[in-house]
Amino acid sequence: MNKYNIEGVETFEFTKIVGLENIEFGKNIIIDDFTFIYAKAPMKIGNYVHIASFTSITGGAELSIGDFAAISQGCRILTGSDDFINWGFGNSTINDKYRNVKREPVKIGKFCIIGANSVILPGVCIGEGTSVGAGSVITKDLKPWGVYIGNKRVKDRKKKELLKNYYRFIREHSDERY
Question: Which end of the chain is more exposed for a tag (fewer CB within 10 A), N or C?
Answer without folding.
Answer: N
